[in-house]
Amino acid sequence: MSSYATLDDLKDELGVWYARLTDRVDAEVADDDTGASILVDAESEMNKHLGTRYAVPVDASSSVALAEILKSSTLRIAAHVAWLKSLLRKTEPRDTKRLHDEVILWLKDVANGKEPLPDVVPLTSSPTGVKSVSGGDPAVWTPQAMEGI
After folding, report:
1. What's the total number of domains in the chain?
2. Who's near 91: CB < 8 A, 6+ residues apart?
3. How far is CA 73 from each of CA 37, 76, 116, rounded to the nearest angstrom?
4. Residues sharing a CB contact under 8 Å with residue 72, sequence separation 6 or more, in sequence order
């Protein structure tokens, strides 16, 4: 489950659209497994950007302001993901896409150091310049993948 937003938060965000956007059969019955998957996708997108400067998932337990920023940003991404993966993907409201795009631009600014996260200390660089690694598919270590290492 997401560290930044809950399934109930997503249900509140999508309102009456929750069932339609999470039901992959006929867009009528809410599917909480799909809702949880949408939140995981949204958090992964958040952490992909945040992880370039901060330890992820970002701990917002001591800052109400930071928790709210992470929650609202995650939910804006999740709403867009819900529409994209739904049977209604071609009818996504423009505002949903616009809000998603604004969050992505902000996350890129955070990743580039133009925008700091409140109440969080960025990671320090290692001698190699690597700050953190996050996002993407987990590595699968097979004999073929290990060749040449």
Report:
1. 1
2. 83
3. 16, 5, 15
4. none
DSSP secondary structure code for residue 89 in this structure: G
Angle at 18 between CA 13 and CA 21, to 5 degrees: 120
Q: Does residue 32 belong to any structural domain of this protein?
A: yes
Phi first, then psi: give them for residue 133, nearest 5 degrees: -130, 130
For the cut 70, the answer to whether the pLDDT of residue 130 exceeds it is no
Q: What is the pTM of this model?
A: 0.81
Domain membership of residue 2 (yes or no) is no
Give the structural domain span for 90: 7-146
Closest among 44, 29, 49 to 108, alpha carbons compared: 49
CA 24/CA 56 separation, integer angstroms: 30
User: pLDDT of 50-94, one tens digit each?
Assistant: 999 999 999 999 999 999 999 999 999 999 999 999 998 899 999
Query: Can you tell me the distance from the alpha carbon of 149 to that of 141, in angstroms, rounded to the nearest whole number?
Result: 11
